[in-house]
Every structure is written in C-alpha cells, then in structure tokens.
Design goal:
The complex is a heterodimer. By secondary structure, chain A is mainly alpha-helical. In chain A, 75% of the residues lie in helices and 3% in strands. In chain A, a hairpin with a 4-residue loop joins strand 1 and strand 2. The longest helix of chain B has 34 residues. Classes of the chains: A mainly alpha, B mainly alpha.
Amino acid sequence: MQGIGLLSLLIWLPIAGGVALLALGDARIQIGRWLALAVSLATFVASLSLYTGFDVTTSAFQFDERAPWIPAFDATYHLGVDGISMPLVLLTTFITVPVVIAGWKVIEQRAAQYFAAFLIMEGLMVGVFSALDSLLFYFFWEAMLIPMFLIIGIWGGPRRVYATIKFFLYTFLGSVFMLIALIYMYLKTGSYEVTAFHALPLSRTEQFWIFLAFFAAFAVKIPMFPVHTWLPDAHVEAPTGGSVVLAAIMLKMGGYGFLRFALPIAPDASRELDTLVIILSLVAVVYIGLVALVQSDMKKLIAYSSIAHMGFVTLGAFLAFDIHAATGDLRGAGMGLDGAMVQMISHGLVSGAMFLCVGVMYDRLHSREISAYGGVINRMPIFGAFMVLFAMANSGLPGTSGFVGEFLVILASFKANFWYAFLAATTLVLGAAYTLWLVKRVIFGPVANDHVAELTDLDGREFLILGVLAIGVLALGLWPAPLLEVMQPSIHHLVEQIVATKLPV
Amino acid sequence: MMNPTTLLAIPLLPLAAAILAGLFGRVIGRTGAHLVTIAAVGAAFVLSAQTAYALLSGEVAPYNGAVYTWLVSDGVHMEVGFLIDQLTVLMMCVVTFVSLCVHVYTIGYMHDDPGYQRFFAYISLFTFAMLMLVMSNNFMQLFFGWEAVGVVSYLLIGFWYTRPSAVFANMKAFLVNRVGDFGFVLGIAGIVHFTGSLDYRDAFAAGPEIAAAKLALTSGTSVSAITLICLCLFVGAMGKSAQVPLHVWLPDSMEGPTPISALIHAATMVTAGIFMVARLSPLFELSETALSFILIIGATTALFMGFLGIVNNDIKRVVAYSTLSQLGYMTVALGASAYGAAIFHLMTHAFFKALLFLAAGSVIIGMHHEQDMRKMGGLAKVMPITAITCWIGSLALIGTPLFSGFYSKDFIIEAVAESHRYGASYAYVCVLIGVFVTALYTFRMLFMTFHGAPRWAHAAHDAAAHHDHSHDHGHGGTPHESPWVVTLPLVLLAIPSVFIGAYTVGPVLFGGYFGDSIRVLPANDVLGELAHHFHDPVSFAAEAFGHPPFWLALAGVVTAWFVFLQRPQIADAFATALAPLRRILENKYFFDWFNENVLAAATRGLGRGFWKVGDQTLIDGALVNGSAGLVATLAGRMRRVQTGFLYSYAFWMVIGLAMLLGWFLVRS
C-alpha cells in the first residue's frame, strides 16, 4: 500500500482525533474543543475531494483501497465508493461539524469524551459507507453502536438506561442475523467481497433466508414499522448531538444496506417480498404520520416524522419490480431509487436541523414538551425564521430539499400502482399537519409563559450551524442536479442488478 | 425572439428585493424597504407590459425555453423554464400591476406596523412566486410556484402572529391547500406516467394518447386515464381557488392584513387554479366528465358562497365571500369550455375586487380598525374618494352595463346557457340567481358602510382597543379619509374596473386573442357560438336591458336599498322568520364545524389510537417488553455493569479494535 488513501484518511483522521481528545482529557477541554472542531473540519474539507475527484461516468467503485486484513478469514481491508455511498460519506462528514459546534458550550461533564465519541463515530460511519469487504462492513456497523450507546447512556436524559438497552438490543439482534447471512455467503464464495456476493448465484430458498436476515438488520436500523419503537425512545433520551447523528446518518445505514446488500444480493427474493416492504413503507407514511400528529414531546414528534420520511426511502427502493410488472419496462425504477437516495440526503439535513432547533430551545428552557412553549418567535425572531424554514422543508415544500425525494418517489410509485402513489401522497397533508401544528403551538401565538418571556435569540454559534444547514436545505432544493448526476450510473447499474434474476434458468 | 434575460429579470427583481428587504430590513430601514420593493415590482410591471406589447403587436413570437435543468432522473428532464404566450402575458400584467398598487397602498396601511419591512419582503416574495407560477412551461415549476404562493400566503395570514385566530387561520389555509395539492401531485404523477416528461408541450402532444388510455385502479376496474388525471389536477385548483368543499380557508384568511387580502386572496393567488385549468385546456378538453364536475362545483360555489355574503357583518368577510362566489363563476366558465371567458373574468375581477378590498381596508383605517359594518354607516360624507371608488368597484362587480364586470360575467352566463354539457342547466340556474345575490350582498355592504345614519359615533373609540394593531392618529375616533398613498391605488384600480371590459372584450373573447395558448374542441366552442351575436361593446350593453341578468341585478340593488337602507326592520323580521335558514348561513353550512369536530377530531383520535394501542400496547407492550423476561434480566445485568465504568471499557474496546485494524493495515 502506498501512503494512505482518501477514504482511509476520512475514517482514521477523526478516530485519531478522538483518541487524542481522550488523551487530552477534560482538564484541557478548551484545547480539546478546538481540536475536535479542527479535526471535523479537516475531515469535511478532505471529503470534498471525493466529490471533485469523482468520475460521474462510471458505476464502478472509486477511490479503491485494498489491503490484507485478517488472512485467516480471507477478510480484506477493502474500501471504495460509488454514486450511492459517496453522497452518504459527504453527509456524514458534513453533519459532524455542526454537531461538534452544537456541543461547544452545552456539554460540561466529560466533554472530552463527548467530543471524542462523536469523532470516533464519524470515522466508523464513514467506514460503514465505504467498506467493500462485508466483514469490514460488519465491523464498522457494530462498532459504531458503541459510541452511540455511550452518548445516550452518559449524556442522555432520565430514562436513558431503558432507551439505550432498547436501542442496543433491537439493533444488535437485527445485525446478528446479517452476520450469519454474510458468513453463509463467505462459505460459498471463499471471500467477504461485496462484489463477489453480488455475483454469487443463489437459489430461491437461499435468497429468501438471506433477504430476511438483511431485512432484520436494515429494517430495524432505518427503522421500518413495526420495529421502529426504539427510535422515539432513543431520540428522547439522547443529547441533541446524539439525536442529530442518529437521525441524520445512522438511519441512512438501513437504507444504504438495502441498496448495497439486500437488493443486489437477493434480487429474486426482493421481487417476491417487495409487496411486504412496500406495504410496511406505506404504513410508515400513513400510520406513523398520524402517530406523529398526537405527540406532545417535540423530539418524539420529530422522531416519528423521521420514520415516516424513511418510509419513502424503502418505498422508492422497492418500486422497480412492480413498475416492471405493471408497465412492462423499467422506466421509473431508477426514479424511485433516485428518490430514495435524495430523500436520505435531504432528511439528513432537515431532521438534523429540526433536532438542533429543539436543542436550541431545550438548552434554554430544559423542556421538550410542546405545551411548555408558545410564542417563541416574540423573543427569538431569527430562530423562529429558521424553524419555519426547516418545518417547511420537513413538510416537503418545493424549493427545499424535502420536496425532491418525495416528489420523485411519488412520481415513480404512480407507475407501479395508483394506490401506492395515493397513499404516499398523503404525506403532503399529514407531514404538513404534524409539522405546522408543532410550529403553531411552539413558535407562533402570544408569549405563553414567563419562561418563554425570558428567552434570548440565537447566539453567533447557533446562528452559524442553523445557517449552514439552511443553505444546504435550500441549495439541494433549488438545484438537486449535481447530486443526481453523481448517482446516475450507480443507480442504473443497481437497476440492472436487481432485475437480473440469480436463479438458474 | 424574446430576450431570456428580460424574462428572467421579471420574477427575479421582486425576489432580489424581497431578500434585501427581508434579510437586511434593519439596514435599509423602512423607507429603503418600500423603495426597493416598489422599484423592483414597478420594473417587473414595465418589463411585463413591454413583453406583452411586443408579443401582441406581433413583433416577437411566443417563447418557450428552459432556464436551467433542475435535475435529470431516469432520463426525465426536470427543468425550470418559461412559456410566454398570450395567456401568460395577460397574467403577468395583471399580477405585476395589482402587486404594484398593493405595494404603494401598503405604505399607508402598514404605516405604524413594527413588521413593515417584513411585510414588504413577503409581498415581493409573493410576486416572485406568482410570476414563476404563471410563466412556467412545465408542471414541476408550476407546482413550485403553486406551493410557494401558498407559503407566502401562510406567512401573511399569520403576519400578526401573536393573534391566536391568525395563526389558526394560516395553518388551516395551508393544510386545506395541501389537501388540494395532494390531488395535484397525483395528477402530475399521472402526466409523467404517460408522457415521461413534465413539459406542457409534451403533455399536450400526448393528450389524445392519454385520452385513449385506461388506468387500472383495482385488478378488475379501470378508469379513463385523462379523466382521472384531470380530476386530480382540478382538486389542486379547488384548493387554491377555494371551491366547495375546499373553500373553508379563504374567509379565515381575512385574518391577514388587508393589502394581502386584495393581492393574494382576491386578485392573484386564488385565481391560480383558474389559470391552471385554462393553461391545461388541451388536456381538460379531452375529458367531458372532468369538465362536468368542474361546472357543477363552480356553480355550487358561485351561488351558495354568495348567500353567505348576505348574512355577514364583517366588511372584509363580505368581500371574501364575494370572491368565493366570483371564483365560482370563473370555474363555471372553465367547465363550460369557455376558458377565455374565465380568464377574462379573472382579469376584470382582479381589478375591481382588489379595488373593493383596498377600499374596505381604507374604511378599516378610517374607522380605526373596526371591521363590523353594524358600527359604520354614513361614511360617504367623510371618506368621499373611498366611497366613490368603492361604488365603482361594486357596480363593476354586480355587472352594471358598460362596466368591466358586466362583459366578463355576462359572457360566462351566456356561455353556460349555450353549453350542453351535463350539469349545464343546473349551472345556468345557479349563475343566474347568483346575479341577484351578488347585487344584494354588494349593495348591502355599500349601504351599511357608506350610507344611512352613522352608527360609529359611540362605537369607534372602544373598537380601537380590540385590535393589537393600534392606529391612532389622534383623530379622537372620528373616521377620516385615508392618505394619498391609500387613495391613489384606489383610483388607479378604479380606472380599469370601469373601462378594461369594454375596451378589451372584443379582441380578448372574440378576436382570437389567446391563439394557441388555449385550445377548445370545435364541438365545445361556446364562445365561438357567441361570437356570431357580438358586434361591439356598446350595442352589446344596450341589448343588456333585454336580458334577465340585468333585471336580476337591478332587483338585487333595489332589494338591498329597500331592506337595508329604507326599512331595516324588514331585514330583522326576515331574520326572525327564517331563523333556521339563518342559522345554517351563519354557521356557513357547518363546513367548519364538520371539519373541526369530525374530520380533525377523527384524525387525532386515529393517531392517538395508533400510538396508544399500536405502538405502546401491541408493539412495545406485547412484542418488545413482552419478550420481557429476557429484556428484564438483561437490563438488570446491564444496570449492574453500568455502575462500573462501562463507558471507559467500551471506549478502550473500540480503540483496541481500531488499533488491531490499523496494525493489519500497516503490516501489509
């Protein structure tokens, strides 16, 4: 291996930064904070080269790095990104920066460990999106749970123990099945290479079980109904930064898993079970949308909103088969997948921003209850403007990023079945209802109580992070073409993979 | 050829001004904010008028081109672009002209408001969004403009955000519009399904193909694709143009400041649905069922919303119900395939209804923010300019011969009479009775406000205290005429309210003005039929005396005069005698009651049920915690471990793993 590759740098730089922070300790936290910021910024800046150096004409994996890792298991340290994973890596490195800034003053206990946890987690998450060896992927996938577990467990709210255990067990149980599936395929191919698994012929039964194993892991992670109940609890107890990373990045691993593993490895099983996935996705949109409406805790509301938005990801990802069955060709299949991808990136920005907004209020009033607020805009006009903008993005307003993915998925689902589009489009009403009702009760109206009357508007630090996210949300909404462009070849390739049967003819 | 840069400048100038006034309002100050926005909207108006002139004089051909590619997905190009033809330039001129008047008026109306700059930013932003909507050459951008005007409307209805009623009204407006948009998006998805494109051009070209296609709804049943798509699109129009039963948001939108009631909720935004159907006439023409549906919905709105104007005492709400009713007239015209008549009425209505709203606003300023007509009366003496212009607007609204509203409304009625479509006879009855109703509520308002004995001597003073937006000039509660920035726009709008109809009716309705921008099948061409009977505007007005609408309108005026000015006790006697009917009207046919107590309550109940039963009892209770033994034991153990220093163990575990990995890496 010559030098260190870009992807390795993006993984190990933040981890090294995290270790350095731990060594530095709380005593020198002033330096520690700046170190954390410097590392996260440097990682983000470095990751931009992924975009600028990306070849948009090929679906092949780029920035390839390969080194022996555990020869005894034929596992290699193999990294690379394509048009599906590269945007997710960028999202990860981008979101970590505001998360570090958001924790600047708020975290007082064990601050060094707090920042270290986020930096280490950043590296591990980049690892998840760029690992091309499935054992390496699994390593990152599981390792990443630990910092998140600690973030909720140490800096979380009063019911953090319940929440962490629920979170850990749910996701851990899901991924154990995935490990079994990976080992099974390793035994058949003699390698953990993801591309080898893609090419591996599998019988109908094998695919069925492998699909279910992946489904267990990814459905929990994204999360899909009915294995979603860990998410609201985890969000409620997590500190602001934890919620942001959880919503903005960790959920996307489930969506990524479907696109990278479940669909191309078990295409025939995906075809047979797609109705199940689609129905659960639509349940997420409608049922979870209704549940979100009646929440009294702001974080729970946004958590349920996240589940509903993720329903569009799984819906868009599994439309190809029904489109093919209904129209006889594949036009629209790529649009569904495009929509799923854009929805993931957009949700990363929007939900991250929404959780940061709640954090801004929580830092002042120490309550997440909607009823504790009212008329916030009277005291915090700038904050109110940001909140309304992000709320509009969350309701899928055209011109913001929230619109793009939902629009593409609705267009594509019409091709598969009118009723899919019909149910998916209810999000226009439901999403607006729960989001704007939240805004009405929290932001607008007369000043509700003495605590609200004492609120102070955003400081420069808060303005900076919300401002950066606002620019992202608007830029992606007004001109999504650059994002779509880098995805196209990989999405086309994926469509080819999932419609090609693996069964012997 | 039209210059794309000019076209781009038309919407972008107001946008730039909005950004400047919105984000840097404190820097540029109040005067700066209104100067920059008025300059931008004024320039947009001049450029629009120039473009219109160049197009109509035949100097340049219609323009259809892309500005930039928004995205490409799966081979479908989604672009931002402009289609500038006869229909578009007409809309552009109306939008920018009314917007300009409203900008000027706002200087007076919002004079003392602390949110002055914010208000100018919003109305300029609205102008941008509305221009993007009308100038679009594709469905995506149409939807963008559609939703963007909705957001600005949301922000403006809730402009006085400390009023609970305002922040309720703006959410209601947005959500009801979203119900419409739900249909709209499905319609767009249908278009993309059949054409693989979002461009109007491609959709229109594929029209016959879609008309021949069926769409499977279940495995057994399929419906006509074009009907389904057109109905879905029209549901969007029902939301934006406030057609029954999605009209409920418009009366409440009067919570916003009056200038925006004129601009958004009368002249421009609410007509977006009318414009959309006219724009998409090549598609709607292909579905007889959808047009019948449009006809019936429009007729119902035209008549039944008019009734509500008769019982309301809030001056703005009367004008709002009038707007609903007039939007119904436009919709009826669409349903009768008289798209040209709909757009023509849209244009005349934009002028006289904006005038009426601004006049109402002038009255409200004069009355120190009193809106209840029962506390007015006799204002003509103290507010002569407002009274005269309001009279002009009212005469135009009820269709007095030679006034602009006369031509536009009369041709809608005649077009319906000419139509043989299913529902046309119902619609004809509705629009005819509607003429009487319109005259009745309009003159009731006029008489109650400007004539008769003043009822404000004692009422005006305590009213000012009820509104947060206090506006006391130290006149001690006496009504007064408004400043020139308020009356100038009234005069400016009064001119077209009188003349624009007679001046343009010939060319617009019968001179082939719209060219290719509106397409009507020969069998449906009711306006073409009417053209045979039309010679010139003056003789047409002379003929009016032989037609029922004139006498119906006159009857309405006389009734209003007699009942509300001469013998108010008759009105009271009627009100007592017809108490049940009055109850229905005062409760607005119980639409709001139904929506709040049945629909909204059921939705929340469903949500709560899903949450408590589904999530908490079944999933968490039975499945998750119910695998309880395991979880509980594990939890117990975890708890014990955590009292040690689990976090640091775990940290070192991660680091250990990482180092191991690193070591393998370096070793190679």
